[in-house]
Amino acid sequence: MTDTPQSTLKSGRLGVFGIVFFVVAASAPLIGITGAVPVAMLLGNGAAVPGAYLAVGITLLIFSVGYATMSRSMTNSGAFFAYVGKGLGVNAGVAAAFAALVAYVTIQLAIYGFFGVVMSGFAAGLGLELPWYVWSLLVWAIVTGLSLLSVDVGAKVLGVMLVLEVLVLVIAAVAILANGGPEGWNLGASFSPTEIFAGGFAGTAGIALAFAFASFIGFEATAIYGEEAKDPKRTVPIATYVSIGVISLLFALVSFAMVTGMGATQVIDKVIELSGGLADPAGVLFGLTEQYVGSWLTVAMGILVLTSLFAGLLAFQNAASRYFFALGRGGVLPAGVAKVNKAGAPQTGVIITSTLAAVVMIIFAIAGLDPFANLFSWMSAVTVIAIVLVEILVSIAVIRYFLTHEGGNVWTTKIAPALSILLLSGGLYLLMSRFNLLAGTVPDGVDPSLPESAWLLNGLGWFLVLLPFLALVVGYVVALVNKKENEQLVKDFAS
User: Fold this and answer.
1) Which residues contact 373 (CB under 8 A, 6 or more apart)?
2) CATH code assigned to 5-493
């Protein structure tokens, strides 16, 4: 179909670094390192957590081989669903779109909950006592406003925040590694395969890998900005590889520095000591920074935790709204959903995404549910399941598409996608089997950290872990019923 001015995103505004800013910001590295890494160390494989992050990074790099090859064959703001649709047919593409929307909406909700907790604590220290949802709704208004502006404005905002965030992490890591800690560098304890996979997939290794997968949420968003990129067939593949490389190395470097700062043989005891038994996971990195650098950097980190959360909110707002835009343009949703404003932003998609977020936050606030233990934990766990599920579908689609189309070679179109299917399926198994630990949805009297507790979930846990699959089925049914609109979608996939 021919795009009208109201259904086309402005092109040529984002280069490699602009896209990388959006994507790396979405992964919120400071949040992952302060929140997920200490938990992975204590409940997972201790000093080997840096290696777990590298292992997951390699897995996602293999996935990206086929993903990047497909990006050279099409440019579409729908990204995942457009790729699946082109390789496996329209019905499968729409199904993938519904699952992807679950991912991006839930991760945004998770971050809103986390932001409310952090901001309310920060403000309380300054004498301003307000409920978490007041701060969450305030930042919601700011994010909504910025996402209605030109996407390159958002990229500039994210760029400044991301540079500062990465800078403080690198300063802390270099300072700790230069000191050598109490035991010096122990590369074997952190990166040896025998240490990384010690405890087995049902035990500590599986727990660490599950948390590592969760920390990479957002890297796949590179293709979403394809229509707005400069030379997208070159820019998107490069941005994908750069984003994964940056996230992998940053997490591995900083987590290894944390291990070094504590001493490889003392990691478990020191994590318990510095975090108060995980009551304050951020206390691990903050305590080490205080010890090896100084209080000035610890204060800076505390402030940048808030900006990191904000950056993630803006990045995922952009991602979700562009999914709605692409579905509207393809006819799955009403045509009005594909409307863009004068700034070239997907206006209706932004409004829908923001409205959903506001409604859920208000429900959680009225119900008196905890913004971290409930909103953040539940939603983030759902997100990572949905993302990995769709990544598997994308890899299958790449193989299917290049069976009948030219492009790439055997490695990029067959071997790498097939290998990624196997690796990602293993990751999906780990995430689902350990969902009770990630989300806190465990039956009464069960310790989720024990190997024998895998797959033990309460009723809510089963609903949440199956939600991405339910969205997949609903999307497929919608596509089957909506035959006329599917014809439009076919044309969009073929663009």
Assistant:
1) 440
2) 1.20.1740.10
